[in-house]
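Reopening closed ticket. The problem is back. First fold of the pair:
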Amino acid sequence: MLSEKHHKPNLIDILRVSSEATLPTRAHPDDAGLDLYNLEDVLLESGQGKVVKTGIALAIPAGHVGMVADRSSLAKKGIKSAGGIIDAGYRGEVHIVLWNISKEAVQLKRGERIAQLLILPIATPAVREVEHLDETQRGKGGFGSTGR
């Protein structure tokens, strides 16, 4: 049985799985996300998606999740991340799925910031099947139910 190492939420252990990898950074101390960098040059044709290597593995603290989010500077060029969840138990290399939704090819250079990583606390309740759910004001109103 593997022993669980308890991590402090204000620290994150990073392993370079490639010596060429750039460690995640924050441009400003109060930025929510850590910038993730691509390991290799990537050409994304219009409408194309690719899995991009970061060259790093990390240890998300127990009770937290890593969420991959867009960088606004790339989204402005039509490059969107397909999102993603990095569970606290995952120790493999982090890969980012990028999609080019623009009408032109986009070249991303090695070492360029490609996504953000948000580290968020999570709840992990057990599942319990019930016969009915409690009533709320919203009820079953879904897509478009507010008239917008």
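Second fold of the pair, where the issue appears:
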Amino acid sequence: MPQVNDLAVAPLRDYALRRSSLDALEAMEIVTPTAIQVQTIPLLLEGRDVIGQAYTGSGKTLAFGLPLVEQMDEGERFVQALVLCPTRELAQQVGGVLEQLVAGTRIRCVVVFGGRAIGPQQDAIRAGAQIVVGTPGRVLDLMGRRSMKLDRVKFLVLDEADKMLDQGFGPDVERILASTPKERQTALFSATTPGWVLNVSKKFLHSPEIIQTKAEDGGPDIDHVVYETFGGGKFEVLRRLLDEEIEGSTLVFGRTKRGVNRLYTKLSKLGYKVGELQGDLNQQQRDRVLTRFRERKTPVLVATNVAARGLDVLHIERVINYDVPESHDLFTHRVGRTGRMGRQGLAITLLGAEDLAKFHEIERGLGRKLPRLTADGKIVQPPVPLRRNGRRMGGLGRRVRR
């Protein structure tokens, strides 16, 4: 399959899109398509099923959103498209993009997820919303209440499919898909696509085109730095980093809800303007925290992995892994919160002695050893490409900030 560098990249206005979509793209100041959009939009407009794998922040939502909107019949008042997302935050982000695309039309989009009253969501569906974006649990709830029928869905999207099709979501997704027509068009998108996802997708898609973009196809511009804190002192390093003056915002990842709350409390008491995002907050609290972060009223957000997917905030200048994530895939999703849509980002990982074995696995997944510094900033290890089968492997970042 040709890479994006081999393709003539036409502006999005040259695609066969409805006038309202072109107006929306102009309002969003989006002209040139990204690699994943170049390779998937024409296929989806032709009615093909697609499995699209691309880095986070690469424009996947528009890659499926534009063709989805083209399929909608404004005159018909029933659910014609369904987008399934693993988290509330991602559902809200996707819904926000689709709302911009259908502005000025009679197409209606509703976002459904738990933690909010189900009544208004039922009302929006009964009023004739053509597009539903939601989490599997709330979608099943609406189906069980007979508030939503999916028997005329013609376009279905599984967003962040690696998460969607894991052991936790798989059964729910299969129940939902069984309620949709077999002849529907299906798109499966994710930043990572493990082999088992491709196997499971065979049950859901019809002869799909598999699109995999690479970092050299316009991948994220993310610098990586690892601080060794083998003798403790993670919090002191974090404070020093937060005291640096930067233009953008900072997202700090912790491992557990309790740990994130402790970190948030300590930073707040020291006078830092910081927000907290973790699973014990109710939806109203989450929305308030995210609104303040998006509006730059809170320059620092401390979060669990609930923010690793679906948090699309372009002014996040750096991600700090205060706690090392459990896997390479999760590392990819975390650091993908920065360097979005062609912007430069910085990913910092604070490495304790207890994290070494786990971090070695992450580096193997990345295909490179990341540059390491001591807690006081002295170089311990420059970036080193790993070798597999005698071949040098690349990584997520292209430059190292020293």
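Update: turned out to be a display glitch only; the data is intact. Residues 278 and 306 are 7 Å apart (CA to CA). Confidence is low (pLDDT under 50) at residues 1-8, 386-402. Please close again.
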